[in-house]
Amino acid sequence: MKAVTSGQMRQIEKIAIEELGIPAIILMENAAIRVAEICLEALAGRVNCGAPAPPKVMISSEGTGIHADSASMSRNTAAYP
């Protein structure tokens, strides 16, 4: 995976949407799925305050103005056992 700046990501998204015809909602959902997978992989095997239950995760978009991304990440994280 290659890291890009926010400006580069905006350019990549613009090309994907305008030139390749990929709907923005599809880009957002795919990104949210991958973020959920990475978060859950990072938390795998951890315990919550000594209890056998997995740790709780809070996803927030406060201050970003991009609440649909947080909703998608929340939905995709909840979809995993």
What is the N-to-C order of secondary-structure elements (H for helix, E for strand)?
A: HHH
End-to-end gap: 26 Å
Helix content: 55-70%
Q: Please tally the helical runs, counting DSSP H or I stretches of 4 or more residues.
A: 3
- The assigned structural class equals mainly alpha
- Our Rg estimate from Cα atoms comes to 15 Å
Tertiary shape = elongated
How many domains comprise the coordinates? 1
The strand count comes to 0
Q: List unreliable stretches of 5+ residues.
A: none
Quote the beta fraction.
Answer: under 5%
Average pLDDT metric: 77
What kind of sheet is the major sheet? none
Structure, explained:
This protein has 81 residues and is mostly helical. It has 3 helices and no strands. The radius of gyration is 15 Å and the shape is elongated. The mean pLDDT is 77.
Question: Keywords, please?
Answer:
56% helix; single chain; 81 residues; mainly alpha
Summarize the structure.
It is built from 3 helices and no strands. It has helices at residues 6-18, 24-43, 67-78.
